[in-house]
Amino acid sequence: MDERFNKINRLLSNYSLGKFDKRLAISRRLDEVDAFIAGVNMLGEELKSITISRNYFTNIFNTVSDMVFILDKKGMVENINKAVSEQLEYDLESVKGRAFDDLHPVEKGTFFKDILRELKMETGPVAKESFIFSASGKRIPVQLTAAYLLDEGGNKKAILLSAKDMTLQLKTENLIIRAIIDTQEKERRRLALDLHDSLGQQLSAIKFFISSLGETLNNRVEKEILEKSSDALSGILTDMRDICFNLMPNTLEEFGLLDAVQELCNKTRYGKKIEFEIFHLEELPRMLKKLEIDIYRVIQEFINNSMKHSDASKISIIFKYDERNIQIILSDNGQGFDHSARSSKGMGLQNVQSRVKSHKGEIQIRSERGKGTRYTVVIPLEEQ
Ligand SMILES: Nc1ncnc2c1ncn2[C@@H]1O[C@H](COP(=O)(O)OP(=O)(O)OP(=O)(O)O)[C@@H](O)[C@H]1O
Ligand SMILES: [Mg+2]
After folding, report:
1. Please, which residues have CB within 8 angstroms of residue 349's CB and are 6 or more apart in sequence?
2. Residue 383's pLDDT is what?
3. Residue of minimum CA distance from atom 3 in ligand 1
4. Candidate of 335, 349, 351 to mutate for ligand 1, largest count of ligand atoms within 8 Å of Cβ
5. Nearest-CA neighbor of 118 among 102, 103, 130?
6. SS3 for 331-377, per residue?
7. Are 376 and 316 contacting, i.e. CB atoms less than 8 angstroms apart?
């Protein structure tokens, strides 16, 4: 047999072991066997370049610090990079073939479906803030980006999902937000005290002087003017008390959240045709003052928004808690709004979101035109 066939055989065995460097010399005969050898040599070149680009890809895949998942079109994990194994403490074997939604229990079952729907609607990648869980149950805030992986023909082969760990960034943001909120609350408290103690007392003294003067007068016209002045002063005092209450209710400081919310509802109900319902367990858990103030501000903003925008006749406030979370469900029966439109220039909801976020909590806003609005706030208690 032609010795060249043995050489070809050995070469192909090398290729099967991943060694693509060797080539065979072409003889002077330039016959069919030589043509075959030229073909095998070309195959070696091709395999070598594919391997180089595959190694290149694997290198990039494993050196990026973001977590990267490759999912098939049904959302099953095909591959993960080193960052996933390190940060989530998973190895490829334990996650390969598992649904990505299993690693992501926040929106279990629907997360991948939502990503897929958005990918189909968008032309480019889809980005969203979310959470992902490590094997030991640690919850990691992430910025997720999803994009289709295309083959050479432009067909959608798989989905590339990258997750950037946002823990540090959120921590810094949180510190800044907290500092702003705390300064704001301190200023409000100072203003409320100043108004109440200084201006309030002086106005009350003037009122007392006016009524004392009124008793000494006999002229009817002068008496009437003094009475009107006294009424006007009473109006100012009431307005001032309301302003102080909105700035920082005494009740919140002295008696706690439930009493302050009750008082807020009573004051709002007065003069408005609105019914309030408050449901709670016997007592709320002990909370830091800061958290109580923030929950109070969220409720205050919800009531303001309901009255300003919704024409509701009923507002319900439900407090629920267990050893892990406190949950506050606020709902009205007003006209609702399209929350996805996000066209508002208002600051109220943004402030509410910052306050809730600063306690590592979450707020979900559900609203539909004609069907009322509901804010659901969940704040973890053990993280405070
Ligand atoms: N309970 C609600 N019912 C109906 N619409 C609401 C309700 N809550 C919020 N909205 C809508 O959401 C928008 C944003 O609310 P947000 O509190 O951020 O701003 P605002 O109330 O318009 O202004 P600001 O709070 O700064 O005074 C509102 O303009 C309103 O259209
Ligand atoms: Mg508002």
Report:
1. 301, 305, 365
2. 64
3. 310
4. 349
5. 130
6. EECCCCCCHHHCCCCCCHHHHHHHHHHCCCCEEEEEECCCCCEEEEE
7. no
Backbone angles phi and psi of 323, in degrees to 5: -70, -15
The residue type of 212 is S
Low-confidence stretches of the chain (pLDDT < 50) are none
Angle (nearest 5°) at CA 367 between 363 and 372: 120
Q: Across all residues in the chain, what is the average pLDDT?
A: 89
- Sorted by sequence, the CB contacts under 8 Å of residue 258 that are 6+ apart come out as 278, 280, 284, 319
| CB-based contacts of 148, cutoff 8 Å, min separation 6 | 119, 156, 157, 158, 159, 160
Cα of 338 vs centre of ligand 2, distance in Å, is: 15
- Ligand 1 pocket: which of 305, 345, 366 to mutate (most atoms within 8 A of CB): 305
- d(Cα 318, Cα 166) in Å, to the nearest integer? 32
Is the C-beta atom of 309 inside 6 A of ligand 1?
yes
Report how far ligand 2's centroid is from the alpha carbon of 133 (Å).
34
Decide the pairing of beta strands 275-279 and 314-321: parallel
Q: What is the pLDDT of residues 354-384, one digit of tens each?
A: 999 899 899 999 999 899 999 999 999 876 6
pTM, full prediction: 0.70
Chain position carrying tokens 């065995």: 13
d(CA 26, CA 7): 12
- CB neighbour burial string for 307-343, b if at least 16 within 10 angstroms, e if fewer: bebbebeebbbebebeeebbebbbbbbbbbbeeeeee
Tens of pLDDT, residue by residue over 231-243, are 999 999 999 998 9
334 ligand 1 Cβ < 6 A? yes
Centre of ligand 2 from the C-alpha of residue 335, in Å: 15
